[in-house]
Amino acid sequence: MRPQPDAIAAGRRILLIDDDEEFAGSLVDLLEPCGFEVTHSTDPREASGLVTSFRPVVVMLDIHLGGVSGLDVLRQLRKEKADLVFIMITAHAETETAIAAIREGAYDYFEKTAHPTELYALLDRAFERHNLAQAHRAAQQEVLQQSQRFEAALNNMSQGLCMFDTDSRLIVCNRRYAEMYALPPELTASGTAWQDIIAYCASNIGYADIALEDITAEHRRANPLHDAAVYSRLLRNGRTIVISRQPLSEGGWIATHEDISERREAEARIAHMTGHDALTDLPNRTLLRERMDQGLARVRRGEAFAVMCIDLDHFKEINDTLGHPIGDTLLRMTAERLVGCVRDVDTVARLGGDEFAIIQPSASPEESSALARKILETIGTPVEIEGHQIITGATIGIALSPQDGDDPDQLLRNADIALYRAKADGRGAFRFFEAAMDARLQARRALELDLRKGLSAGEFVLYYQPLVDILTGTINSFEALVRWNHPMRGMIPPGEFIPLAEETGLIVPLGEWILRAACADAVPWSGGIKVAVNLSPCQFKANNLVQIVTRALDESGLSARRLELEITESVLLHDNEATLSTLHELRALGVSISMDDFGTGYSSLSYLRSFPFDKIKIDRSFIKDIERRDAQEIVQAVAGLGSALGVATTAEGVETEAQLRAVAAKGCTEYQGYLFSPPVPVNQVHTLLRKSVTSTAA
Hints:
Blueprint: E1 13-17, H1 21-31, E2 37-41, H2 47-54, E3 58-62, E4 64-65, E5 68-69, H3 70-80, E6 85-90, H4 95-103, E7 108-111, H5 116-155, E8 160-164, E9 170-173, H6 175-180, H7 194-204, H8 212-222, E10 229-234, E11 240-247, E12 253-259, H9 261-275, H10 285-299, E13 305-313, H11 315-322, H12 324-341, E14 347-352, E15 355-361, H13 365-380, E16 383-385, E17 388-390, E18 393-401, H14 408-424, E19 430-432, H15 435-457, E20 460-469, E21 475-486, E22 490-492, H16 494-504, H17 507-522, E23 530-534, H18 537-541, H19 545-556, E24 563-567, H20 569-573, H21 576-589, E25 592-598, H22 604-610, E26 615-618, H23 620-624, H24 629-645, E27 648-652, H25 657-665, E28 670-672, E29 680-681, H26 685-697
Parallel strand pairs: 1-2, 1-3, 3-6, 6-7, 18-19, 21-23, 23-24, 24-25, 25-26, 26-27, 27-28
Antiparallel strand pairs: 4-5, 8-9, 8-12, 10-11, 11-12, 13-15, 13-18, 14-15, 16-17, 20-21, 20-28, 20-29, 21-22
């Protein structure tokens, strides 16, 4: 019975090599209708090429091919393609030869006289064998790939891995495990005793935290066959290994070995960064607080404890004039110098900016005083940075525990209050905290709150003091001077609130109000009289001064030629280039620029070169001492300088006729002071103008 074509899988290729064309033709006729794809050749020399091009599954090969042995062809083809299924075609009398062929690798043989059904059955088995062989090879390949993937995963683990059997002998380990302990190949072979590996590690790498016998005893006690465990080992090379061990259900155990040295180092670096200042590497406020808690715990047992707050004097000016890199270098040097002043048990910390702190455990007031003097002397010593000799100083506030507080915040606050008092007393000194200081600070804070309220409530008023031409006696301009009409304290002079406004930044909105109010007040003044307004360094830092001046002029309608803006030398200390640019923009509007309090700074002459001022105002301290020869020479020199530069010179603080005659004799062109008039409210300006006209006519 023939098999139906659809019962045979499509693509069943058979290569038939037989020099008997008649038999071969009949065989082809027999197989092709059953769905087999058959290619026939009578020449055995074509066999190799046909295997390549036709790609058969089964090769039916006649044992006798003319002068060529079918066994030789079988051997050759098996060398070329071992997965072919060979069926030998024999005559009835060639059974032994066919069996020999099977020994050479043929699958079976087929006698030419056999019934076709036997052939069909044989081919079915042959193709089934081929399919099974293919499936087997695929399974083997999959197993191989899985093994390779497992090995790759095992050897690319960041952790070392090892597996031991119930006899504590190695089953498998990965490359990382061998690398961690520098194991030679013979100790990573399957069957190696755990004890041998540990002994090698102890003698070569070395354990820093445990002896070999202790490891062995611990291993026995821990019973790795039943108990999980996680522990660490510190090696003598400084590495830290965390070992996590788990028992296996079939016996033995598996363990991972993780080198956490870098993680520990990173954690240590992060912990250090958390508690230390990045610039100086000193403890920061957080670590200082921890150290203070520790010190205060000893205070409760009867020991003394001191806290110092330290500020560098004039650091901001150094930072602004010489640049932040030099400022940073100075801070690092200051940190080193402070550390050099203290004991090992003391802590030096940086709180931020130019603020430092020191805590002194077990320190008496005398010891704190001695340390403070040492710090003032050390910090006051000049240093050289990038060719600049820098002279700075320090101001120190000290609080003692338990008398000044028993918690870190209170002690730091009180030390800061003492620091503030030391600054108010002139800097370059130290002060211990006193309860009265806190009261003064509270009063200052209350004044600050009142200042904020007063600004929004319109409590400020302007007074005007005239600047008078020395030759003609006429008023050239009025300087606007702010006063605070406090609802409870009455009229407060500027000396009491302007420094506070500067420190808190309230001078910026206050200065804008002064500018707008002065411009509005000056509009109705006759004769083109000018109004002079003082500017603060803080207003220059706000970066919108030109716009504020422009808006004040536009809103009031005052001509820019009638506005004088007065600055002190301190304005030019801060960001000199940007400040000069702003001054040039203001001058371009048409306003006049005056240098106020000239002679009180150390760079007055250099500032006159850097900007074409319209007026120089000589500080009142020189006028007060005008009877002294040196003061006279200074006033004469400044007046002469003004004349040479073509600018007016104003003598401030003229209170007597003798002073007026003296400054006139030295060449000043203008004076200001109580001799002519104290500052007056705006409603008295016209009275002064009439007085000026009357005196001129007289």
